[in-house]
Amino acid sequence: MLFNVEKYKVMYLGYNNPKVNYAMEATQLQEVNDERDLGIIVSDDLKWDKQCPAAIKQANKILGMIKRNFVDRSKETIWALYHSLVRPYLHCVSKKNIPDVFSYNSRKH
User: Fold this and answer.
1) How many CB atoms lie within 10 A of CB 90?
2) What are phi and psi of 103, to 5 degrees?
3) What are the pLDDT digits (tens) for 25-57?
4) What is the DSSP string of the chain?
5) Section 4-22 average pLDDT
6) What is the reported pLDDT for 81?
7) What separation in angstroms does the CA of 33 have from each of 15, 73, 104?
């Protein structure tokens, strides 16, 4: 099996890690502090401080796309678009950062 050495990276986790230099096929692997994998940003300190702003930024892009492209702005339409397109990006963000456009009581009517 052939490996593409340029795609491999090294991330050191933990404070007492000796940070050994790794190499494949006589090429030293690139050291990174954070890496995006399957849409999740993993950092070397395992904190969410880079993932949450990226998720909020993507959700705001989608909100702008909804605002620009949809003429029907009824509550039902916006609620369905928000919950199907925007909320999936905000699954890692805390409740205080997610704007709840419609409360539970307003959905009953």
Assistant:
1) 17
2) -80, 170
3) 888 999 999 998 887 888 888 887 888 888 889
4) ----GGG-EE---STT------EETTEEPEE-SEEEETTEEEETT--STTHHHHHHHHHHHHHHHHHHH-----HHHHHHHIIIIIGGGGTTS-GGGS--SS-HHHHH-
5) 88
6) 93
7) 13, 42, 41
Tokens of 53: 């702003």
88, two tokens? 């999936």
What's the pLDDT band for 102 if we cut at 50, 70, 90?
Answer: very low
The percent of residues above 90 in pLDDT, for the chain, comes to: 36
Sequence spans of domains, the chain = 5-32, 51-108
CA distance 59 to 42: 19
Of 85, 79, 81, 86, nearest to 109 (Cα)?
A: 79
Taking the whole predicted model, whether its pTM rises above 0.70 is answered as no
